[in-house]
Every structure is written in C-alpha cells, then in structure tokens.
Amino acid sequence: MRASRWMCVLTALLALGGGSGCPSEPMPCFNGAPPQRQGSPVVGVGNEAIFSISADLTRACDAPDSPRQPESVTVEVKDPENQPVPATATLTGDGNTATIRFTPTVRGRHHVIVAFAPVGSLHQLGIFAGEDRREEPALVNLPTSTVCPYVDRTTRGTWLCGVEARRELTDAPQSLSTTPTIIMAVAGDVVWTVDGERVLRYVDTGTGLLELTGTAPYPPGASSGTFYRPPYARLASPDELVLLSESFLHRYTFTEEDGLATAPTNVWVPQGMSLFGGDNVGGLLVRAGARLLVVTRVSDPRTFETRTQACPFQPGEGGTYHPVSGEACHTLVGDPVGYEEGVVWTRTLSSSVTAPADTLRRFTATSGRLLEEGSLSLDGQLTVTLPPLRPGPAVPYLATLGGSTPFVAPRWNAARGLLELELLPRPSSSSQPYLGQNFLWIHGASSSIVYPRQSTR
Hints:
The chain is built from one helix and 40 strands. It is mainly beta.
C-alpha cells in the first residue's frame, strides 16, 4: 500500500507534465499548515502541564475545500526513567487541535507522543519538568543607586553591588572605587576591585566599613593617565588575584609581611582568537587544582573553523603563570556561554536549518582538564541567552520560545548526575534575570531583588 501511494505521488507529479494520475485514490496536495504547539515547554514538578497541538492536515486534490478531520486523538507520556505517566488528550475547537494534560512527579525531560486518527499524523515532543521557584520569596531587596553588574556577599554578611558595599541595608553604601568599574571579586571576607589604574584589596572585619589592606598598579608598570580596558576575567582567593586582560595574564599576591605584590606579566593571546559572550570577552579563567585554565575560542588558520580550547598555566619563575610545558591545549565542544568556580558552560547548535536546537553542556575541572559532565538538548523549544561575562561568573538563563514562562535556568543535580531545569522567581518586574555564581538578581526601580542560587540555598 505504501509503495502504491508513493507511485501515485510520482504519477501525479508526472501528470503536471502531461501524464495521468491514480484515479483510485485522492492525491494530497501538501498545502496543509504545519502543526503548531501552544503552551510552555517547562512546567514545575507537581503542577499540571497543559498544552495544545494542532493536527498535521493535507488537502485532497479532488476536494481542495474539504480537508479531512481527525476523529480521535491519543497521548502517551513517559518520564525520564521511561515510566508511563497518566495523561489525557481531547479534541477541541474545530476538531483539528488536541489539548494534552498530565502532571509530572519527577524532574527531567518527559517524552510525549500524540497520535491523531485517521488523519493528523503522529507528533513527538519533549516537556521539561523542574523545580518551580516562581513564588519563592526574595532573599533581600538590595537598595541600589545603579544597576548591579554583579551581586555577591562576604562571609561576614556585607553585600556587594558592583563596587558598592553595604553591611546593613539601611547603611549608606561604601564605594570601593573612584571610577565606574565592573570588576569585583569576593573571596571569603576579602574583596578585590579594579579601580581604573589600581588593584585594591579590602577585608571585611565584621564591623564598620571594609578595610583597605593593599593597592597595586593595574596593569603593573602602567603610567599615570593611561586608559586600560577592564580585564576579560578574574580569579580570586583571599591571598591571590589573577586577571586576564586583552594581552596579558596578571598575578597579584598578598602577605601580611609584604602587603600586595605583583608578579611579572605574561603574554597569553592565542593565534586566531575570537570574542564570545554577551559582552565580547576573549577568555575565561578557571581554577583546576594548582594550575589554571585559560578558555578561549580560536579560528583554525587552515579550515577557518572556530573551536573552544582550554590551555593549562601554572606558576613559574618569578611567580608568573606560564603555559604548562609539553602539554597542549584541549578542545571543548560548543561555544562558551557561562562559567562558575571550576565549571564552564557551552552551547552547541544543531545543523538543521529548518529546526535549529540548542544543546547546553556542562564541563567541570577534573585532573587539570575540563571534562564534559552532562548535557541537555533543548528540543528547539528553549534558547540559550548570552550573559555578560566580564563582571564575574555567570550562568545563562533560557528563554522560552512563544511560551509564558521566560525565566528558566539550568541546574546540575549531583546526586543523579543529570542536568536539569528550574523555573526562576518572577517578581512584578519584567527585567531579565542575572545568574551569578551565588545569587540570582533582577533589577527593579530602586533596588535589586536578590534570590539565592543552588550554592547558597
């Protein structure tokens, strides 16, 4: 039957050139509308998922004004463990659309199969179930006089909005910089900032203002009045700050005896470097044990293909970070879209032109390398944003295509070894969320609404 139907298609095409068709069967003209889906692809665990999907209809050539209608519809839903989930499917409206309902009880991607009969075709899609944080109360409403490029907190509880510090929310902010800058790093009770031509180190003593404990030139040897762009990336501990600028790798160390000292700079720029991220950075810094990894995108001079690579550096002569001798850079799949402590997030796009789909990948620093720990295909229903990376560690949020839940974030489930999604808090503000390493914040009219991340809950 299938072979004869394809023969009819062939003969119908020949008929356009003067041949004859198959009079025994009506020929589809292939001018029906493609199936459409309405509803969010992400739902909270324990909440009912409700969405509609239209049948895929074609019209017969001998009756172009009378398309055949589906007479019934069925649905089958399987959870991430391939276990069946109770679900219902009902024909609605003009009979060409089905409403699907089911309630996920576990986190992860649910496989949904919808079948119309006798026409309408079979449709397969994914629905993601995750933790629902949309009604979660804010951790704090942080008063701000400006947009916070980065939000963090010291161990003793002082809040940082960019380079403004507040021990109590009612306190006037302490400015840690005399120039507008977006470089700030918190390491326990130590706060590092880049103030134009200076690197500053502050300590939170538990009372009063943060105490300035050291200053050093940025970059080392810079002459007064010279403008330098903010670094691409920074990596901080209480006694060390590493900065990645457009051309150099800078290292600063602190001891009680010698104060803040600088090591000689080292050139790091790779051949064919390509910028990435929401604010066009050239590289990221990731700690991997005693060494650090510089993550970049480079273009192959022979094939012109762009790849992501991680190159190992370790302290050498004079305390400067040098490339590890005899060890080549290793390649990561995808383009960098975020990073955290010991973690790099990348995005890959499918090669399909008609239905491009993002895949999100998570790499972790293991044995001095970045190894892929998990991945999640977004089925063409969610798209990965490109957050600014220069202010500090950032994780991309995921935008829903045509849905009503635009704020979704990836979340690593260490117990299950899976990459999952969570629905982010949704205050009245319609501003986009910012996902730092420890906090999520959304800018309001006169404050930043701050929520904890997985690491600080």
